Structure prediction request, 326 residues.
Amino acid sequence: MSDRRRFLKTTALGAALGPSLLEGCAPADPRTPSVSVRPVALSTWEHGLGANAAAWDILSRGGGALDAVEAGVRVPEADPSVTTVGYGGFPDRFGKVTLDACIMDETGRCGSVAFLQEIKHPISVARRVMEETPHVMLVGQGALDFAVAQGFERENLLTPEAEAAWLQWKETNGETLPRINIENHDTIGMLTLDQAGNLAGACTTSGAAFKYHGRVGDSPLIGAGLYVDNEVGGATSTGWGEAVIRAVGCFLVVEFMRQGYSPAAACEMAVDRVISKNPDWRDIQVGFLALDKNGQHGSFCIAPGFNYAIYTPEMENRLFDSGSRL
Ligand code: SD4
Prediction:
């Protein structure tokens, strides 16, 4: 809008509302961000670098945020060296690899699967739930049946390395669960912003290593492990899912951004909420990662050690350390 048109609009509005109501109003059109970065791929942890690269292939050619985010997280899902996501993920206490994932697009559509076995790419099943069913979430055998009906192949996801780690855990630790993000790494949560200005998000994990059979964490839960609102921004989480669920963490981050807080401040405030709901917070890790509508990003976590990968036209796929409370 030209200065002259803005002046006319402001003065007309001023006449209607009276001068006192306009005092302190930002003169700029609120639809025009001051700094805008596009496209952006943002992912948790070092394995986010590979995910970002795959997403960038799509985003840099003008592709959509949803396609990019799905392609991105499929990289660690298929990588057996990533022992916390998809194929090669550490199993539960019965030696079963059970996967959780969800996906959300710029229109608010979302899809999710939980406690899914024998399918290498739960994120793609979650997308099919979103696109091919009237539902948001399918779990367990029902999710597997749906995946098979959709043409996904059943595979053994337990690698020899993951099986060996499970056998060793049974021998040496018995009932003890390794601490997420501290002793074992980690879920991929990813947010993308495309050239058209649309956001999408995905989160996929094998969950807590050696968890109870049937345990579902925050990662497939819309609002807990992932939330996207195209008017505001998106957030995803990593860490001890039970603590994130108690605070409905990612919805909270997005709501703080809606109130005007930066992505970094919103993540920090959400971490403080998690802390206030979890007396054992010093022994757990929770981290949030957020991307706003303008391509600005931020993160915060409880314990040092959480890092994330970002790819923008200016910053070509770089790793950053998150700020932390401890
Ligand atoms: C869970 N939040 O299942 C996931 C695990 C995770 O980084 O994020 N690890 O609780």
User: Anything to note?
Assistant: The pocket of N-hydroxy-L-asparagine is lined by residues 84, 180-181, 186-187, 205, 207-208, 217-219, 238-241 (CB under 6 Å).
